[in-house]
Amino acid sequence: MNARQQHRPTVRRSPLRALAVRGAAVTTLALALTACGGGEDPLAPTSAPTATGESGGDAPVVVGSQAYYSNEILAEIYSQALEADGFEVTRQFQIGQRDVYLAAMTSGEVDVLPEYSGNLLQFYEAETEARSPEDVAAALPDALPEGLTVLEHAEAQDADSYTVTREFSESNGITSLADLAGYDGDVTIGGNPELESRPYGPSGLQELYDVTVDFVAIGDSGGPLTQDALRDGTITMGNVYTADPVLAAGELVALEDPESMFLAQNVLPLVAADRAEELAATLDPISAALTTEDLVAMNARSQGEQLDAATIATDWLTEEGLLG
Amino acid sequence: MNLFRDALAWLLDPAQHTGAGRIAARVLEHLGYTLLALAVAALVAIPLGYLIGHTGRGRQLAVALSGAARALPSLGLLTVLTLAVGIGDAWLAATVVLVVLGIPSVLAGAYAGLEAIDRDVIDAARATGMTEWQVLARVEAPLGLPLLVGGLRSAALQIVATAVLASYVGLGGLGIYIQRGIALRSYDEMLGGALLIVALAVVVDAVLAAAARVARTIAAPARQPAVHTAD
């Protein structure tokens, strides 16, 4: 009330100043709102580092995840295992895509996040030649910015693939991308719009497998729309991820990639370098146990049974004897 | 602004003007979805809006329903509908989504245009012996035209902006550049695509603004003769 009474004379004196005052009020409000959400805003580049200075000790471990359900399950596995080992854990899940959460990690807001080796490497080295799990893992430490490192990678992969229907595969005898050169029909591939510009997109297929393809952009990352397009023949091959439970059902088949066009995408923890040592004792055994089949099974439970990440994570950890 | 210079360079790059994915083709796709959806929205909403405005009934229902339609998340609706009709007919799903988005504005423009007319004018028209159809066609429709065109303008803007989603279900359009630009972190492409959408929105709006001026000249002289010419 008081503030309003004080503003009134300024309104009369000069409309411009009134505007400025109102603008200032709006800005203050916006700042106040930003400040409230500050801890959760992964874009804020200068937000105070959260206790990263004092490595070790009792500072809580901040575990992050991508905005991808399967990644959240992995983050939940890390979190529960860390809690079982006596760490205090803060969960900061669903932090968007790579740009955003990597900014949060380099600024020290997040300490651990489940990553995929190939995509992480390609983010920092777009032209990398590494393809196999070993090569990618070996190239990572040098590629990462200072302050970030990776721990042991799991055998589990969630990689790109070109997937066809079982019917197409059987009636044309095509089980590998190399078989496509001998296929007479037209090949149309479907995937996110960016696939068209990726090294494993149409240009990669042309170069490594001698196949000319048409491209249709379907933006759901190999999800139900892409799979639907495969079934109704709109596309011949879809860019579906290998940990998608639909591949376990058998109706769709991922083609083999003998020329290693796709990068290996092993699951591995991306961690703040100053906490790597204390976290490795807990996270390395998880990576040693995690297989692609486990990942597919957990994704299937999430999509099919609609279970939450925490339940799925607890069940897997218990099964593997990794809790306590 | 380096980013803007990069975006302009991207727009002028000959690579964007050749092949199946050239800018002109994307603009035409985008414009096609927009105009189709706007036409269908107009076909559905104008008669309905006139009915509401002329009879004065059903306004509450229309307000409630169009409020609900505005609240529907377009991307979710698009995904569900595309899965329902099959991705081969994704254009149908996209059109429905854009029509649902456009209807509230057109509907509001149509009935508000009729409601804004001075009741004396309409009573006078009836008193001269006009049938209800004549009242609607010769008095209400011309006088309500400016507000109706306003409704069409705001619907067109929303549809142009939301047709970006077409690229999500394999339909192309200008959304491709934005979605791909985000994923590849090629912000020149993303901003270039956004500028194209803005330009398209401005052009569509300018065309409809010209239509609005014509509508006002139709509405203004109609005020006097509408009452007198009827006999």
From TrEMBL, chain A:
Keywords: Signal. GO terms for molecular function: transmembrane transporter activity. Pfam families: OpuAC. Residues 1-32 form the signal peptide. Residues 60-319 form the ABC-type glycine betaine transport system substrate-binding domain. SUPFAM superfamilies: Periplasmic binding protein-like II. GO terms for cellular component: ATP-binding cassette (ABC) transporter complex. This is Osmoprotectant transport system substrate-binding protein. It comes from Flavimobilis marinus.
Automatic annotation (TrEMBL), chain B:
The chain crosses the membrane at residues 31-51, 63-85, 91-114, 155-178, 190-215. Gene3D superfamilies: MetI-like. It comes from the Bacteria. Its main location: membrane. GO terms for biological process: glycine betaine transport; transmembrane transport. It is found in: Cell membrane; Membrane. Keywords: Membrane, Transmembrane, Transmembrane helix, Transport. Pfam families: BPD_transp_1 (PF00528). InterPro entries: ABC_transp_perm/SBD, MetI-like, MetI-like_sf. Residues 27-208 form the ABC transmembrane type-1 domain. One of its GO terms (cellular component) is plasma membrane. It is a multi-pass membrane protein. PANTHER family: GLYCINE BETAINE/L-PROLINE TRANSPORT SYSTEM PERMEASE PROTEIN PROW, POSSIBLE OSMOPROTECTANT (GLYCINE BETAINE_CARNITINE_CHOLINE_L-PROLINE) TRANSPORT INTEGRAL MEMBRANE PROTEIN ABC TRANSPORTER PROZ. Belongs to the binding-protein-dependent transport system permease family. This is Osmoprotectant transport system permease protein. It comes from Flavimobilis marinus. The lineage of its organism: Bacteria, Bacillati, Actinomycetota, Actinomycetes, Micrococcales.
